Amino acid sequence: MWSTKFISLLCALTIAAASQAAVPVYGVKVEHTYPHDSSAFTEGLFYLNGFLYESTGLEQRSTIRKVRIDTGEVVQKLDIPPQFFGEGIVNWQGHLISLTWKSHVGFAFDLATFKLERQFRYEGEGWALTQDGKQLIMSDGTSELRFLNPRTLKETKRVRVTFDGRPTRNVNELEWVKGEIFANVWGTNWIVRIDPDSGKVVGLINIAGLLSPSDNVRGPDDVPNGIAYDAKGDRLFVTGKNWPKLFEIRLLKSDRTAQVLPGLMP
Fold first, then answer.
1. Which long-range contacts (CB under 8 A, 24 or more apart) does 11-18 make?
2. How is residue 168 annotated by DSSP?
3. Are 41 and 27 in contact (CB under 8 A)?
């Protein structure tokens, strides 16, 4: 006969396991739609002082841009050397830090002038960058996030992103939002909300259906990618590779939870 104490413990463990797996799923409401350069293979995106800063990829086509939100006008642009595939970007105290995909090389530019200040190196691939006000946070296409000293650009630690205890791969474009890391999952319509301390996925955002069939985004790589947050105005922006539109969205709570979703785990 099982003791009452043992049964209570078993029930508690069962409830804990169930609650760990019950990751909330959010929908979105489009608040505003803005034009976006449909030739921009978006890799990085952030908001600062009324403008969007965007990096685009592909060899011989990679750029860094300062963009007017309302019109999509590019008001400042830097062409990355043609041998590099540009990746994520982030601002840090008057500097703009950028990654490249497989070259193991990153760049630091003056934020105002886009003038090159220095290069730095890292192991593995470079995918995306964001910052929490103290450290830079970098994704590399795996389930790990790297934390970098923003002055030395040296790695200080890593956190593994997990969904119900399992590694979440293909973590791509990053944005710091209200103490969490929002991340596109490459090749999917999902944004994951990540606890930066534990790496646990604490929420899922479904952004499927933002584009209409008439938007004519047909390439296999023209997937959602690009998250920017205006903290002062509490505005969240998303777009995608070669998308003709940028969306300001608001999250919608739902009764749905998820345990396993396609594209999130190996």
1. none
2. -
3. no
